[in-house]
């Protein structure tokens, strides 16, 4: 089998080359169009000047012919004499003609036919006509006019004007434009090269900086200068890099924290299994090891469920069911599901029993369960917790307030971040993995709501959840 033939890959043209080519093509088309228009305008102006000159000469000739008396019937027609005109050519084909009303040339005697028979016939009926003819290979402009002026026509005078000089001038002008076209295109190419190099300079610098940006150098940003489109593009890319850097930082922190949280239960499992496998443990030691392993497995399972829910939140897969739910029932169900309902009684205040929200019942109940468990965890036994529900400007407003230890102001902006703990030294039994408020925030956001925190050390904490309300029975 013969080796497979590989065709060469043609290099793509740069933007600079394409801009230069398109600029040259556009300029060439414009120059050709302008040259054609210029030639047409020059020809029109020159013809208008020749027509004015012919009109003056015809009027003078008609006035001179009008000075003579009309000839008697049957006698030869008088010939009008024209003053010498230095602008005439000496080719011998530019002499004026006097033509009777029947189309016969009376002067000069050696002329065989009128310069323009149709124009002569029209002029015999009183119409002055300007026409362009070719005689003996030369172009002429001819005026046909009846005489005498102001009286019934007695004859027609035709005066030609040679156009050879005008055509030679127009040909020379056209050649000059064609000769200048390549120089104009070369000048446009040189100017386009310099201008595109200057205009695309920011793109080259942006490409150089972007080539250095990687996973380990996400903090570097594109240079921003000026107020043009490249400035706007650099700003948009820098904003994207900011979001990307923040996402990578959160992902790295998330991975590190998840690994840290899994390390503790795995260490407990490993330690207890090693203890059981070494020697012959007593039934009491074996039972304690099994309970410790079971508790560690529960912690890992709970952490895995929380991570799975957050992953679904990132993928936009929350709110799988859209059901109309009474707002007060959500809070009551959350109170029932709290892990230690007997430790601290929760006071429930529902201002509007008909207030309803739309969403996934399990997810919304979990929101208030997490908030209530968090409040119970940090409120002493002699404290109090109050859960309120009311309508506020078309929204269902849920508030959970406790009289616990409170939270310092510097921690409030970070509440809801994954694996964030107000007190990093708290144990897992007391503080959890730091995912509860992150889950709450993700579910509330997925339902089109928002959450806020108010707290101060020693004065308790108040959590406010706003969800879109819908009136219900």
Structure, described:
The protein contains ten helices and twelve strands. It is elongated, with a radius of gyration of 51 Å. The strands form two sheets. Strands 6, 7, 8, 9, 10, 11 and 12 form a seven-stranded mixed β-sheet that branches. Strands 2-1-5-4-3 form a five-stranded antiparallel β-sheet. The relative contact order is 0.07. It folds into three domains: 13-65 and 91-199, PAS domain (Beta-Lactamase, 2-Layer Sandwich), CATH 3.30.450; 229-314, Helix Hairpins; 323-471, Histidine kinase-like ATPase, C-terminal domain (Heat Shock Protein 90), CATH 3.30.565. It has helices at 15-66, 117-124, 164-199, 201-212, 229-277, 283-314, 327-337, 361-377, 428-431, 436-446; strands at residues 97-99, 105-107, 129-135, 138-147, 155-162, 323-326, 346-350, 355-359, 385-392, 395-402, 450-455, 461-471. It has 473 residues and is α+β, with helices and mostly antiparallel strands.
């Amino acid at each position: 089998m013969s080796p497979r033939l590989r065709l060469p890959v043609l290099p793509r043209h740069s933007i600079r080359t394409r801009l230069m080519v398109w600029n040259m093509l556009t300029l060439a088309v414009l120059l050709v169009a302008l040259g054609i228009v210029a030639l047409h305008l020059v020809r029109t102006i020159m013809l208008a000047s020749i027509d004015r000159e012919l009109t003056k000469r015809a009027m003078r000739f008609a006035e001179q012919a009008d000075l003579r008396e009309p000839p008697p019937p049957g006698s030869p027609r008088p010939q009008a004499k024209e003053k010498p005109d230095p602008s005439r050519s000496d080719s011998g084909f530019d002499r004026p003609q006097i033509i009777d009303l029947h189309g016969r040339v009376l002067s000069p005697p050696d002329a065989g036919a009128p310069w323009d028979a149709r124009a002569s016939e029209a002029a015999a009926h009183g119409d002055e006509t300007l026409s362009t003819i070719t005689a003996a290979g030369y172009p002429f402009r001819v005026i046909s006019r009846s005489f005498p002026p102001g009286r019934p026509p007695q004859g027609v005078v035709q005066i030609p004007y040679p156009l050879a000089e005008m055509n030679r001038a127009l040909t020379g002008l056209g050649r000059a434009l064609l000769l200048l076209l390549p120089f104009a295109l070369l000048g446009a190419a040189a100017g386009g090269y310099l201008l595109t190099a200057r205009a695309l300079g920011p793109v080259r610098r942006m490409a150089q900086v972007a080539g250095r940006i990687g996973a380990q150098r996400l903090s570097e940003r594109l240079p921003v200068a000026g107020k043009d489109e490249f400035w706007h593009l650099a700003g948009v890319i820098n904003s994207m890099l900011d979001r990307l850097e923040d996402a990578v930082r959160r992902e790295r922190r998330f991975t590190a924290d998840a690994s840290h949280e899994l390390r503790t239960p795995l260490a407990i499992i490993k330690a207890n299994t090693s203890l059981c496998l070494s020697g012959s443990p007593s039934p009491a030691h074996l039972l304690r090891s099994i309970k410790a392993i079971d508790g560690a497995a529960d912690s890992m399972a709970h952490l895995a469920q929380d991570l799975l829910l957050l992953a679904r939140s990132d993928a936009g897969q929350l709110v799988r069911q859209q059901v109309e739910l009474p707002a007060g029932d959500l809070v009551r169900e959350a109170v029932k599901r709290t892990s230690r309902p007997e430790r601290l009684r929760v006071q429930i205040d529902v201002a509007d029993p008909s207030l309803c929200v739309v969403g996934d019942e399990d997810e919304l109940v979990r929101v208030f369960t997490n908030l209530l468990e968090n409040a119970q965890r940090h409120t002493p036994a002699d404290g109090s917790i109050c859960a309120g529900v009311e309508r506020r400007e078309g929204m269902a407003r849920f508030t959970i307030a406790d009289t616990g230890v409170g939270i310092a102001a510097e921690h409030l902006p970070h509440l809801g971040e994954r694996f964030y703990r107000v007190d990093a030294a708290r144990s897992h039994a007391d503080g959890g993995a730091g995912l509860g408020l992150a889950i709450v925030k993700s579910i509330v956001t997925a339902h089109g709501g928002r959450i806020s925190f108010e707290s101060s050390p020693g004065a308790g904490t108040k959590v406010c959840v706003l969800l879109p309300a819908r009136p219900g029975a």
